[in-house]
Amino acid sequence: MYKVVLIDDENKITRGLKQIINWTQLGCVVAGVAYNGKMGLQVVDETQPDIVITDIKMPYMDGLEMIEVLKSKSSPIKFIVLSGYSDFPYMQKSIKLGINNFILKPVDEQELENSVLDAIMSIETSRRELETIASLQTRSNMYAELINKQVLSGASSEDANQAILADFREQQINQQASMIHNIKKYIDEHYAENISLVSAAERFFINPSYLSQLFKKKTDDTFLNYVTKIRLEKAKRLLQETDLKVYEISSQVGYKDPKYFSKIFEKHAGVKPSDYKSPVRS
């Protein structure tokens, strides 16, 4: 879960930010709240958040002063700045601080959600870059050691190259398997949302076409078909174990159109959802 800290001198604003979107669905948890920049520094130090959503104008220390302090410590935190129409000079300063995620008050639900998703994407990009650098450094050291061993054992340079190439291929296979595992886990956890090949590719920072080919290669199934199977498995369980209406189940498993859901269900299950429902429950 990504930890979020909310900072605003108005209690009603922080309460509203807590309630306006489903933080859990975004993979986030509100780890702390503060009411000015000075208090914000303390809460940030205590909670070590990934994302800070802060107002600009606050007593004791404003939001930008707080951000300056945190950035001077090379903090990796992603900041989302709340601002009013009269805060343009402050926004200019925000841009100089490297912040480009602003939300105008009053806060719009969709805008806040999009800003949080942008922050999460930025966090994941940074993490992947660090992981790639660390992996390259490790492999570089490993290859250098392997070459030395091959040379000392009297092996030819061609043998050393073949050993490196074999290791590289093994690493690539492992990385691909790990990626598909993570994508399937993501689908299993977010099947009720509007998941598509493109949105999944964006989330995992890969080309949609490459994802499509890799998913088919590793699972012997298409991305869309896998999503459909997961949704229908959940739907069957709900039909058998609950008294929910078909249109309610349709919505819960990611289909906004009940008629389309019924059509897909019948195509795969051989019966209509209404006929699949168990007539007797223990």
TrEMBL record:
<feature type="domain" description="Response regulatory">
    <location>
        <begin position="3"/>
        <end position="120"/>
    </location>
</feature>
<dbReference type="InterPro" id="IPR009057">
    <property type="entry name" value="Homeodomain-like_sf"/>
</dbReference>
<dbReference type="InterPro" id="IPR018060">
    <property type="entry name" value="HTH_AraC"/>
</dbReference>
<dbReference type="GO" id="GO:0005737">
    <property type="term" value="C:cytoplasm"/>
</dbReference>
<dbReference type="GO" id="GO:0000160">
    <property type="term" value="P:phosphorelay signal transduction system"/>
</dbReference>
<dbReference type="GO" id="GO:0043565">
    <property type="term" value="F:sequence-specific DNA binding"/>
</dbReference>
<dbReference type="InterPro" id="IPR011006">
    <property type="entry name" value="CheY-like_superfamily"/>
</dbReference>
<dbReference type="Pfam" id="PF12833">
    <property type="entry name" value="HTH_18"/>
</dbReference>
<dbReference type="GO" id="GO:0003700">
    <property type="term" value="F:DNA-binding transcription factor activity"/>
</dbReference>
<keyword id="KW-0238">DNA-binding</keyword>
<keyword id="KW-0805">Transcription regulation</keyword>
<keyword id="KW-0597">Phosphoprotein</keyword>
<feature type="modified residue" description="4-aspartylphosphate">
    <location>
        <position position="55"/>
    </location>
</feature>
<dbReference type="Pfam" id="PF00072">
    <property type="entry name" value="Response_reg"/>
</dbReference>
<keyword id="KW-0902">Two-component regulatory system</keyword>
<dbReference type="InterPro" id="IPR020449">
    <property type="entry name" value="Tscrpt_reg_AraC-type_HTH"/>
</dbReference>
<dbReference type="InterPro" id="IPR018062">
    <property type="entry name" value="HTH_AraC-typ_CS"/>
</dbReference>
<dbReference type="InterPro" id="IPR051552">
    <property type="entry name" value="HptR"/>
</dbReference>
<protein>
    <recommendedName>
        <fullName>DNA-binding response regulator</fullName>
    </recommendedName>
</protein>
<keyword id="KW-0963">Cytoplasm</keyword>
<keyword id="KW-0804">Transcription</keyword>
<feature type="domain" description="HTH araC/xylS-type">
    <location>
        <begin position="181"/>
        <end position="279"/>
    </location>
</feature>
<dbReference type="InterPro" id="IPR001789">
    <property type="entry name" value="Sig_transdc_resp-reg_receiver"/>
</dbReference>
